[in-house]
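Hi everyone,

Forwarding the result from last night's run.
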Amino acid sequence: MTEFTEFTFSSKDGVHKCHASLWTPEDKPRAVVQIVHGVADYMGRYDHFARYLADHGFVVCGEDHLGHGRTVDDGKYGYFGKKDGWTLVTADVRQLRQLMGEKYPGVPYFLLGHSMGSFLARTYLCAYPGTVDGCILSGTGQEKAAVVAAGKAVSSVVCALRGPETVSPLSLGSYNKQFAPNRTSADWICRDEAVVDAYLKDPFCTFEPTAGLVRDMMGGLQYISSEKALSQMDPSTPVYLFSGDRDPVGGNGEGVRKVYGFFKDHGTADLTMKLYPGGRHEMHNEINKGEVYADVLAWLEKHI
C-alpha cells in the first residue's frame, strides 16, 4: 500500500518553508520521480497520478513552489519574490532533488515537469546538468522570442510602476478562446468536465499570477531557449516530451516540436515525443489518462 507523507524544507528565498509531498511504495523503490508542478497548481492535484506510479514501485515527490499551494503562509499567491524568483524556485527544485538523493542513495532519479513546471525542469537541466537520470516534459511549449520579450517587458513595466505583487495584466484566459463556445473559463485544461469543475472550485488554483511571476517566467523562457543555456545540458540525459495536440500552451503541438528541436539540435541522444490527438493541456487528467499513465510508466521502466 502506498504511504503518503508531507514535510517542509527551507526555501532558498530565506523566508518561506516549502511544503513537500511524498508518496512511497510498499516495497523497495525502483526509482524516484520528482514532479514539478505548473502555475496556479500544486502537488495535491497530482495525487492520483502519483499513487499510480507508487503502486508500480516508484517513490514520487514534489514541492509546492513559492507562491503556490501550502507553501504560501502570507497570502501572496502567484508570487515568487521581489527579484530572482525563477532562480529561487529552480534552486528549491534542486534542494528537493538533493534531499531525496540523500534519502534514496543510488536509486535512479527522474524529473517530471508539467506546464510551467516543464519550463523549470528545462531550466534545471541547463543549470544542473547530469544530476538526474531522465526528464519527462508534460504540456511544455515555447512562444516566439518576440512574444516572450514583449511579455517580459510589459510585466517589468507593471512591476516598476505598481510593484511585482500586482496582478499581471497578461491572463491565462486567452488559452480558452480556441474552445469557444466555452462551458467554463478553464475548458483548455482538459476534456474531463469533473476535473475542470474541481479546478475552478479549488482556492489553490483560482488566483491570478502576479506581474512579478510572469516577468520571472518570461525570463526563464528566454533562458531555456538561449544558446548559452542549451549548450550546458548533458546530452546523455534521456528526455520524453508528451502533450495534447490541442494544448494551447504548446501551440497545438507546434511549440512542443520546437522544444523537441532544441534537444535534438543540442545532441540529446535519447529523445522521444508523443502528441495525443484531441488532448488538451493536462494530459495526466485527460479522459484518456489511463493511456498517458501507461506510456509514462513504460518510458520510466525502459530507462531505469
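The chain has nine helices and eight strands.

Cheers,
N.
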